[in-house]
Design a protein that fits this description.
The protein contains 16 helices and 7 strands. By secondary structure, the protein is an alpha/beta fold. Among the domains are: 144-297 and 418-476, no CATH class; 301-400. The longest helix is centred in the first third of the chain and has 40 residues, at 14-53. It is extended, with a radius of gyration of 32 Å.
């Protein structure tokens, strides 16, 4: 609108001016909304373009954040279904304190009140204020005539020469390595909630000492993982002193073993599992795991399914769409047969299993694909044909590597919060403590009670702190 048009509109009166201004304001809002919509579409296309520039086999940890596709929205509304019975906190089994209340006059009109006509009970569960407890240990020393030296009773509430008790060390260590809380926030929580003054350096030294005492248990976890009947393996990026390292995870239903290494190659796998593995190894298609010769191997079908979405970004030809549809149906039929295995007769299951093998051979012989990314998948099917349907032959073997993905996610959260490690010893402590706490979590054990009782027994008898919890018979 020019100046002359604005003056003419003003002279027309108040009502026409208001109508024109409201119309222009509505137009501006619509244009702003359109701009925001176009910007969102532009950002999405930029991310897809950046993703297309990377090889479809590029690990997620090596891709920039802006190049990753947006996560899919939740398919259903959170919460229980409509009409579902509600849930509430159950009444406590133990009551520590009973407090009675009384009124002498009405809180509204201030009139006098007689005896109560009824009573009701209300339960309140709370945490009492916490204060640090300082214990002075008076330790007598005795002269042993046989040994000809001074002896004294052992103190099992703390490590030798340490002023921080085992409960504090175990609790703070669990917060950092088990829950992913940063060191500064652990210090703040202890200072504010527990009124315990401590420094970050003091806590880190105590955690390193705890990891030294748990070294035997950490090695025991690797030994048990090496002899597991079914073992999942995965890796993710890590940073050590600002340099790229890798965090490896070897896990089963009741165990998780982590190690941090500079290499992302096969030497790490051979160091943990050896050259031969007697069980079933469940992994993705990464070539480093080929250095181990397991008794059986299952490749993750979920990773194979994800490859289809990646190739969609760089190939939209008719030949690829036809191949993609056939392979997607094959994956769905294989997983469905695994879920319905117990409900099918043996002859029907064997027949369907044989048909899946025949279809897989035909998929591997596909030769009309145009792009190199699309041709890579038939080659993969030919190479790993004997390792894609192991879950149909061995009970207890899954068709995917989701368990390793879930066990590696706590490490990813810690990586985002604490920016990994700054020393090799810190990385060693990180891997050991995450292995201990995640294994205790998988076994539904209380980490505080397990460490408290285990450290007391360790300081008095010399046995490893978690010898009972990490025994091969209890985990394998």
């Amino acid at each position: 609108m020019t100046k002359q048009e604005a003056v003419a509109l003003y002279r027309c009166g108040r009502r026409p001016t208001v109508i024109v201004l409201m119309a222009q304001a509505l137009t501006i809002r619509r244009q702003a909304q359109r701009i925001r919509t176009l910007e969102a579409e532009s950002n999405k296309l930029k991310g897809q373009l950046a993703l297309a520039k990377h090889h479809p086999e590029t690990p997620s940890g090596m891709q920039p954040v802006y190049a990753k596709p947006e996560p899919s929205k939740r398919s259903r509304r959170p919460g229980a279904k409509e009409g579902h019975q509600g849930h509430c906190r159950p009444a406590p089994d133990k009551i520590d304190l009973v407090e009675e209340h009384a009124l002498s006059d009405c809180p509204h009109c201030r009139g006098p009140l007689a005896a109560p006509v009824e009573t009701r009970s209300r339960y309140i569960e709370d945490i009492p204020p916490t204060r640090p407890r300082v214990t002075q240990h008076v330790i007598p020393r005795y002269w042993c005539r046989a040994c000809r030296k001074l002896v004294e009773p052992k103190v099992t509430q703390a490590f030798p020469g340490c002023v921080l008790g085992n409960n504090l060390v175990a609790f703070s260590c669990w917060l950092h390595y088990g829950m992913g809380v940063t060191v500064d926030k652990v210090v703040t929580m202890l200072n504010v909630a527990c009124h315990f003054k401590v420094t970050a350096g003091g806590l880190i030294q105590a955690w390193q000492r705890l990891a030294d005492h748990l070294e035997i248990d950490y090695k025991q976890l690797r030994k048990i993982a090496k002899h597991s009947p079914v073992l999942h393996a995965d890796e993710t990026g890590w940073r050590l002193s600002g340099k790229t390292h890798w965090l490896w995870c070897f896990t089963q239903d009741r165990l998780a073993y982590y190690t941090i290494a500079r290499s992302r190659g096969s030497p790490v796998v051979r160091k943990v599992l050896g050259r031969k593995f007697d069980g079933t190894l469940v992994t993705d298609f990464y070539a480093a795991y080929n250095a181990v010769s397991p008794a059986f191997r299952q490749r993750c079908l979920v990773h194979l399914d994800r490859e289809l979405d990646k190739v969609d970004l760089v190939d939209d030809s008719l030949a690829w769409k036809t191949f993609r549809k056939r392979l997607s149906r094959w994956i769905g039929d294989a997983r469905r047969l695994g879920r319905n295995r117990s409900a099918l007769p043996s002859d029907s299951f064997d027949r369907r299993r044989s048909l899946l093998d025949d279809r897989l051979v035909l998929l591997g012989d596909t030769a009309d694909l145009q792009t190199k990314h699309a041709r890579r998948l038939p080659r993969r099917l030919r190479r790993f044909r004997q390792e894609l349907l192991t879950f149909l032959d061995l009970p207890g073997v899954p068709s995917n590597n989701n368990h390793a993905e879930r066990q590696i996610r706590p490490a990813v959260i810690i990586r985002k919060n604490s920016y990994c490690n700054r020393s090799r010893r810190g990385a060693r402590v990180q891997a050991a403590m995450m292995s201990v706490f995640q294994t205790l979590h998988l076994r539904s054990l209380d980490p505080m009670r397990s460490l408290r009782d285990g450290l007391a027994d360790h300081l008095s008898s010399g046995r490893s702190p978690l010898a009972a919890e990490f025994a091969p018979a209890s985990i394998g």
